[in-house]
Amino acid sequence: MTAATRPEELSRAELKPGVAVKAALAHTPEVNYLARPTKPGGGVAYGGLFHIAIAEPGTYRVALGNASWVDVVKDGGKIDSSAHGGGPACSGVRKMVDYPMQAGDYVVQLSAGADAQTGVLVVKLP
Questions:
Q1: Rounded Cα distance, 27 and 114, in Å
Q2: 39: how many CB neighbours lie within 10 A of its CB?
Q3: Among 123, 118, 94, 87, which Cα is nearest to 3's?
Q4: Buried-most residue among 21, 46, 85, 115 (CB within 10 A)?
Q5: Which residues contact 125 (CB under 8 A, 6 or more apart)?
Q6: pTM above 0.85, yes or no
Q7: Three-state DSSP state, 65
Q8: How does pLDDT run across 84-123, given as a tens digit for each residue?
């Protein structure tokens, strides 16, 4: 999957809860973020936008194969994470960030990444 670089491209960068994707990212200066990234990164950093529709309220974990910065946006504003950490050894998961989400549409923004691609997985926690 190729990450969107503009909000109008989000329909082609659709994440589904529980389904991992390998995502191609763009240089962050090419990304038109919905909300200013907490860590935008420099001209050589990578990032992108992804849409996710949440059907069931709960805490959702965004897991990445690299250490990109993650912001989750709802209605133009960033939501606060509830936890973060690294993945289990030898799992291929580098970073995990948890967010409380209600039913609705969200945008997962990645920024300040060192790699042009990463694995992305969003899962609902029990």
A1: 10
A2: 14
A3: 118
A4: 46
A5: 58, 59, 60, 61, 98
A6: yes
A7: coil
A8: 998 777 788 889 999 999 999 999 999 999 999 999 999 9
